[in-house]
Specification:
By secondary structure, this protein is of the alpha+beta class. The protein contains three helices and six strands, in the order αββαββββα.
Length: 142
């Protein structure tokens, strides 16, 4: 019996298999999940209107230009190195741009938002003095 030779799959074959995955008609489509993220970064889709992407760049975000796959049934891979990864918004008439920030900076930003929330919550109800009722805040454990 002849020995079967295993031919390694090409990247194109693997990509084709991912695109052929069956999705039920009534099922939700996975259209914005990003595959191929680099470790150490937090990724986010940013609506490209006005100077919004510039604000994100000023905060430390950068455009994603390395090769990634977006969603389950369409190609979201940039044309070549240096091309910004884009997608259309839900209504199809606005552009989303994939951006990323170092995980360290993302964690700092989240801690600052949490501190702001805790400060606001601590001040709630102090002026009521029990006259109109009470405010009880319960936090779910993280």
């Amino acid at each position: 019996m002849p020995k079967k030779i295993e031919v390694p799959k090409r990247d194109e074959d693997q990509r084709t298999e991912a695109l052929v995955k069956r999705v039920p008609i009534s099922g939700n489509r996975d259209i914005l999940t990003v595959y191929g993220k680099e470790d150490g970064y937090h990724y986010r889709w940013v609506l490209d209107v006005g100077n919004r992407t510039k604000k994100f760049q000023n905060a430390g975000y950068e455009f994603v230009t390395h090769e990634v796959t977006v969603g389950d049934a369409r190609a979201g891979t940039p044309e070549g190195l240096g091309t910004i990864v884009e997608a259309l918004s839900g209504n199809g008439n606005q552009k989303l741009v994939l951006m990323r920030i170092l995980e360290e900076y993302y964690d700092e930003d989240q801690a600052a938002k949490e501190l702001n929330t805790l400060t606001l919550e601590a001040g709630m109800g102090k002026e009521l003095g029990g006259i109109y009722g009470d405010i009880k805040l319960e936090r779910k454990p993280l």
